[in-house]
Amino acid sequence: MVEIEDYGDRRPEWLKTLTQRARHADAARDEAAERPHRSPRVRTLIRAVIGADGQPGQDVIVRNVSPGGMCIASRTLTPGCGDTLRVSLPGQGDLKAQVRWVGDGEFGIQLMGAFDLGEMQSANRRRNAGFAAALERLLGVRPHEERTSSGMRAC
């Protein structure tokens, strides 16, 4: 049988560290369990127009999209958390959304209706087809294909 020594207040540093790490791991696990599941994001750079009811829209950039929301970048538009906005995307029409978080030059919105992420991706590919073809002709690069570092050289 293993004998367990009682250190009292004189615990060795390694035991203090081990105890502290266990507490941090428990706290992180509890925090992760409380957080809702986050949907995967699709990175984009799409122009959109956002406005509030009764106000003109402003041009913004959609940085990423998920089935339920978007990250929007704007230097001029600074909504408050909870504001309701109207979002106009190419090929999607107007969507209603609520501001969920606000950061420096960007904010997140939760969409309040149906949104076809697949259609938006298809429209984005069609819109960028000319650019993708030019890249392929000029550089031999296909943007939609994964690349490896084997064809790259050090500068």
C-alpha geometry: elongated
Q: State mean pLDDT (0 to 100 scale).
A: 77
CATH class of one domain: Mainly Beta
Termini separation comes to 63 Å
Helices and strands, in N-to-C order? HEEEEEEHH
Beta-strand share of residues: 25-35%
User: Which structural class matches the secondary elements?
Assistant: alpha+beta
Question: What is the number of helical segments per DSSP (H or I, 4+ residues)?
Answer: 3
Q: Please state the CA-atom Rg, rounded to the nearest Å.
A: 25 Å
Uncertain segments are: 146-155
Stated plainly, the CATH topology of one domain is called Thrombin, subunit H
Strand line-up in the sheet with most strands: 1-2-3-6-5-4
**Fraction in helix:** 25-40%
Identify the CATH homologous superfamily of one domain.
predicted glycosyltransferase like domains
Task: Describe the protein.
With 155 residues, the protein is of the alpha+beta class. The chain has a domain at 42-114: Thrombin, subunit H. Helix content is 28%, strand content 30%. The protein is built from three helices and six strands. It has helices at residues 13-34, 117-127, 129-139; strands at residues 42-51, 58-66, 69-73, 84-89, 93-102, 106-111. The protein has a six-stranded antiparallel barrel with strand order 1-2-3-6-5-4. A hairpin with a 3-residue loop joins β4 (84-89) and β5. It is elongated, with a radius of gyration of 25 Å. Mean pLDDT is 77; it is low at 146-155.
